[in-house]
Specification:
Order of helices and strands: HHH
Helix content: 40-55%
Largest sheet: none
Oligomer: single chain
Number of helices: 3
Number of strands: 0
Distance between the termini: 19 Å
Structural class: mainly alpha
Shape: globular
């Protein structure tokens, strides 16, 4: 059984971070995007985490 790796897929919107996370956790990319947008209304470093993942996650 192959391990699911965290990569940014080619079928992506802005950076592919939400698509990569959704694929890794078996979710729809649109659900992950919605979760991210809603979480931005809460206090915390969500946007900085998104940028860090954009830099760290390799492209497919």
């Amino acid at each position: 059984m192959a391990a699911l790796v965290l990569v940014r897929p080619r079928d992506r919107w802005i950076a592919g971070v939400c698509s990569g996370l959704a694929r890794r956790f078996g979710m729809s990319p649109n659900v992950m995007r919605l979760i991210f947008v809603i979480s931005c209304a809460l206090p915390g470093p969500q946007f900085l985490l998104y940028i860090a993942l954009w830099i760290v996650m390799p492209s497919e």
